[in-house]
Amino acid sequence: MLSAGTPMITGGDEYLRSIQCNNNPYNLDSIANWLNFDWSADQQNFNTFAKRMIEFRKNHPSLRPANFYQGIDTNSNYMEQLVWFQPDGNVASGQYFNDANNHAIAYRIDSSEFNEQTSAIYVAYNGWSGNVNFTLPWPMVQVKTGIE
C-alpha cells in the first residue's frame, strides 16, 4: 500500500491467509486455496490494519503518482520528490544499496509536491530479524506526522 505502483494483493492477504508456500494453488481444491472467514484475533487485527492502510493510500495522492518520482526539488522547499535513507538518517548511497548485509531502508516523499496538506511521508522498512532504530532525516525531525 506504500509503493507508487499498483498494490499486488490477492484474496485473503487482507487477513493473513497463507497458501502454504504454494505460489500456484489456483488448480487445487484444498485448504491451501480456500478462504476461511473464521479469523483469529491476529487475523482480525491485521484486517483492521489492512483497511487503515488502504484508507491511508486513498488519502495521499503522493503514494499514487501519475509519473515516476523525481530526485529533484520542483517546488523550492529544499526537499526532493523522493529520497532514500539509511536507518541512521543519512542519504543511502550506491554502496549502501549494494551491501547485502543491509536489510533496512527508508524513503521520504515530498507530498507537498503532489498538492497534499501533509508536507512529507516517511516510510521505513525493516527486513531484518531484529529491531532497527530509524533516525528521521532533515527536515522530518521538524514535521509532526499526525500518526499515532
Automatic annotation (TrEMBL):
The keyword Hydrolase applies. Transmembrane segments: none annotated. InterPro entries: GH (IPR017853), Glyco_hydro_b (IPR013780), Isoamylase_C (IPR048644). Pfam families: Isoamylase_C. Coiled coil: none annotated. Keywords: Glycosidase, Hydrolase. Residues 81-140 form the Isoamylase C-terminal domain. This is Isoamylase C-terminal domain-containing protein.
